[in-house]
Give the backbone structure.
Amino acid sequence: MMTPDALKTLIRVADDEGIRFISDEIYHGLDYAVPVETAARLSENAVVINSFSKYFCMTGWRIGWMVVPQALVRPIDRLHGNLAISVPTLSQIAAEAAFEGRAELDAIKHGYEDNRKILIEGLPKAGLSKFLPVDGAFYLYADVSEFSNDSFDFAKRLLQEAHVAATPGCRFRSHRRPAFCALQLRRLDQQI
Amino acid sequence: MMLDPARKLMTPSARSDVPPFMVMDVMAAAARIEAAGGKVIHMEVGQPAVGAPSPAIAAVQAVLGKSALGYTETLGIPSLRARIARHYAETYRVPVSADRVIVTTGSSAGFILAFLAMFEPGDRVAIANPGYPPYRHILTALGASRCCSRPTRRTALPSPARVCAPRTEGSRLPACWSQVRPIRPAP
């Protein structure tokens, strides 16, 4: 996850250089280690994208939101009207009420925190000691390059031989580039 | 040029030739093992363990069968847009006007709308690596070229020269974790 200072610098550079900036904040609310900052505070030019799928646990309702510069509101209104007319009404009604469920949602977040601890402590014992900072969301990106330079192949063998389903990070057969596998923090308590 | 009408009807567009969302393939492989009686520890899908919070369910139950549930305003129900704007005031202490909030069909639709509203075909876009693969695939389908950045620790900062210099995939670009950084070519 980016620190607030890193995000601030990046956005300043983007604004100065005429680079458009999109901030994917879908995992906000599921942070465990560093303070979270929104690009909405840092620049009115930034586009923020967020969702009710993760913290709000509404994956299948297919509902999210954007915060956009004023100049993009009408263009997106025109695009969206043509592409989709509107967002499912039932999901919008549910989403508005979901803000009243913060206590339940925070309890679920604490479960992810427990699973995160299990993985951070357990993976090195299983031989996976290098991973990117597990600051937020419910994934852990582990460097598997000690075992394979192809994360697809590694994920396939992990599933076939150990019956652990993980997602390959990227498919570069390069010795310079670490191969990553994404492991997620859900339901670990029941499984490990 | 002569076109073979039958062939034209059956040939998908070049832009549709994007990779599948790989996690779904892993899920299918795991399901095959389970169908054969095996036990699988699932760590592949990024989805919460439980469903929507109870106030959301109650709100839906209150309207089902009582409302026609017609279309809404394209940008979203005004009270929901206002509630999201209030979320910024409450959570981040930052004022966001409700008329800058747009409700979308998940973040997936948000990305499509953002890319369509912000980029032209051929624009260069930098994205984090490792990152969410559909960023790349949506951009491919929309005709924007992309460049990847390397994984870094959270403290790494990019410099403007490194961000803006022409790069090819695999060359050194600074990463920004879970951010998408669109780059426009210098005029």
Notes: Residues 30 and 42 of chain B are 8 Å apart (CA to CA). The radius of gyration of chain B is 22 Å. Chain B touches chain A through 98 residues (CB under 8 Å). The mean pLDDT of chain B is 78.
